[in-house]
Here is the input.
Amino acid sequence: MSKAEGVYKRYLADLRKVSEDRNKGYERMRAYLSPAAFSAEAQSFDALSKKGLHTVGPSELSKFTPQTVDVQRGTVTAYACVDLTAVRLIDRAGKDITPLSRPNQQTFLPSFVLSGGKMLLEENGTWSGDSVC
Here is the structure.
């Protein structure tokens, strides 16, 4: 497993923990997110909390394929296929409001940067082309 894939698996596991704890404890993610990525995640969790929303259930990484690796710049981008089948969106009343239109498999385009000897997730972009899953 590459360093980038390991960081991404940790990210998915922590997303579940934080969301199932009603969007609390995201500070733990600072260790492997770039400052910009951490700020974006914090804003996202805070916005979900204000709406009374959180998720439950695991997202599973089913495929991780490096797309570009730039050794000089210390950057990696990849295709990440994430199975969201078991992830449910829950409202303030505890009701499952997961959209029926949400695909069970989602393609993400995470980018990573090597900083201070550590691989950091810089962005978890979404892929808009044909699914690579």
Summary: The CA atoms of residues 35 and 89 lie 27 Å apart.
